[in-house]
Design brief:
- This protein has no helices and 42 strands.
- The protein is globular.
- Helix content is 0%, strand content 36%.
- It has three domains: 191 residues; 175 residues, Sandwich (Jelly Rolls); 173 residues, Jelly Rolls, CATH 2.60.120.
- By secondary structure, the chain is mostly beta strands.
- The strands form five sheets. Strands 5, 6, 8, 13, 14, 15, 19, 20, 21, 22 and 23 form an eleven-stranded antiparallel beta sheet that branches.
- A hairpin with a 2-residue loop joins strand 36 and strand 37.
Length: 554
């Protein structure tokens, strides 16, 4: 629309709140005199909507605010590339990224010194490739994510930046170095020292979440914790209004209490153990047991953890509780995600992965805590041809099981190597990735589906299809395998024995679902003895090499 208007100094405001595909595509590109950018009021983006919108605007010294929280594919692609007068970048508050959303966004901004705070906690494929490539003065950036995602997420994103700078990150993000991770020569400043397994109350500590869940209007919570038997005088979490009790939800040693304006109901919950409690406007779910919620509960006071918020005052402190995780959603959107961490002053507390803030004890004393069973996360583990992992799971795809694996396929010669899988020796009842094929087998025979093996790859398989980035399309399944033997990684389990072990394969991630519920999530780590292995984020256990030798790692 205004592309190449070299005399344009001010741009009209853009009042549209809902955008469409490519709507502002290269709109002000190479407007070299543009000083005053337009106000941008959009709340719903579309693919390619801001593609290269201000690329080459060499007079821009300030940028419009970017407040949208959910992005679209290629939406900010090269948006401010080659804006050489920029000195600082606006913060990027988006929590949900999309493919190529920030790709080359500030590439070639040779005057940029202070980078943004990137709020997203999970990365998408190619999301930030070449984002700051060639920003030769850039010396500061802050991120909130704790995982580098797949190998494409940050490809060369900090290539050719300043030789000295500061990279601020969560303590759990692996300290990988290089242009695709943290630049060599930059100082690392962790926003906290390390992740913890849990924090534990001694009976005088509690956390104020600052949240008043309104379950009647679509809010929900999910909390993973260990509880003792306690009794009716012990509260593990909750809030309620007084006099009453009315308008609240709380977990006592004897059960879960839900109360609205006039009545309350309770669900017996006396067992000792580790539980995941999920509450929304329809049900209370304890692990896999679901109970219908008969009341429309809205909490009048902030939810406390390790105590009951009793009309604004902490009551009935928990004396036998460990907190592993807390999540709060508004109409399905994750708004608060608290995990246990050790801050930089060695104080155990909770860290909000959504907004990057801490929640501290507002009681007395100090929380006890438990360490995770590993010393640090790894980018990957790599087989030399004699190592493999026994996952311990036998996916039953007819019962809606699903798997996902992210890996790097190395070049090979000779017999095809195995990525994952299991089968009977007579080619029955299993599924596996072998060479450039995913093969599925039932009791009557098998079918194979080809994909490109070498390079960074992911494979996703459920009862209806196999999807892979190896060919960028999906295959509909005609067979629905029920695996007789445990799935192996780096090898194929044939009648209980590993075959076709893959020399040079790198494993980034493995997930296994039952009926949509994540049952196993394996990531590469170093244990406390510096042994490379896999950590199950669901069960909290380590899985070690079942072969010989030792995995390589990065």
């Amino acid at each position: 629309m205004f592309r190449g208007c070299s005399s344009l100094t001010s741009a009209p405001d853009l009042p549209a709140t809902t955008l469409f595909t490519s709507c502002y595509f290269r709109m002000f590109e190479n407007c070299s005199s543009l000083v005053n950018p337009p106000s941008m009021l959009a709340t719903t983006l579309a693919d390619y909507c801001y593609y290269a919108m201000f690329r080459g605007c060499t007079s821009l010294t300030s940028l419009p605010s970017l407040s949208v929280k959910t992005l679209a594919s290629y939406c900010y692609y090269s948006m401010f590339a080659n804006c050489t007068a920029l000195r600082s970048a606006p913060n990027l508050p988006a929590l949900t990224l999309a493919e190529n959303c920030y790709y080359s966004m500030f590439q070639g901004c040779t005057g940029l010194i202070v980078g943004p705070t990137i709020a997203a906690t999970t990365l998408a494929s190619n999301a930030m490739g070449y984002m700051f490539n060639g920003c030769t003065l850039l010396q500061s950036i802050t991120v909130k994510f704790s995982d580098w995602g797949d190998t494409t997420a940050t490809t060369n994103w900090l290539y050719n930046v300043a030789q000295v700078g500061t990279f601020t990150k969560p303590g759990g993000l692996p300290e990988s170095r290089g242009a695709s991770f943290i630049p060599n020569g930059w100082t690392i400043a962790n926003s906290y020292k390390r992740d913890l397994a849990y924090i534990e109350s001694t009976g005088t500590q509690y956390i104020n979440t600052g949240i008043k869940p309104d379950f009647a209007n679509g809010d929900s919570i999910e909390v993973k914790f260990y509880k003792g038997e306690g009794g009716g005088g012990i509260c593990f979490l909750g809030s309620r209004q007084l006099p009453g009790p009315v308008n609240g939800l709380y977990v006592l040693g004897t059960g879960i209490v839900c109360c609205d304006n006039s009545t309350f109901t309770s669900i017996t919950f006396v067992n000792r153990g580790t539980f995941t409690l999920t509450v929304d406007d329809n049900y209370v779910k304890i692990n896999d047991t679901q109970n219908t919620m008969p009341l429309r509960v809205s909490c009048s006071y902030d939810m406390f953890l390790f105590a009951l918020n009793n009309g604004g005052n902490a009551l009935s402190y928990a004396t036998d509780m460990k907190l592993y995780e807390w999540k709060y959603y508004q109409n399905g959107v994750l708004k608060q995600w608290l995990i246990p961490v050790m801050n930089n002053d060695d104080v155990p507390c909770l860290y909000d992965k959504i907004n990057g803030t801490f929640k501290y004890n507002v009681g007395t004393g100090s929380f006890n805590y438990g360490e995770l069973p590993y010393s640090r996360k790894l980018a990957y583990i790599e087989s030399t041809g004699t190592q493999y992992i026994d996952t311990g799971v036998k996916p039953n795809f007819p019962n809606n099981d699903e798997i996902y694996i992210s890996f790097y396929g190395a070049e090979y010669s000779g017999a095809s190597p195995a990525i994952f899988g299991s089968r009977q020796s007579d080619l029955r009842n299993g599924a596996y990735g072998l060479g450039g094929n995913v093969t599925v087998l039932d009791a009557d025979g098998y079918d194979s589906y080809a994909f490109d093996l070498v390079g960074y790859r992911w494979v996703n398989m459920d009862n209806s299809k196999v999807t892979s980035n190896g060919r960028n399309y999906e295959f509909a399944l005609t067979r629905h395998p029920n695996c007789t033997y445990n799935f192996y990684l780096f090898a194929l389990n044939t009648n209980g024995s590993p075959v076709a072990q893959y020399n040079g394969m790198k494993l980034y991630e493995w997930k296994y679902y039952q009926n949509g519920e994540l049952k196993q999530w394996l990531i590469p780590v170093l244990d406390s003895n510096s042994v490379p292995c896999l950590y199950d984020k669901v069960s909290g256990t380590l899985i070690y090499n079942a072969g010989t030798g030792s995995f390589n790692y990065n």
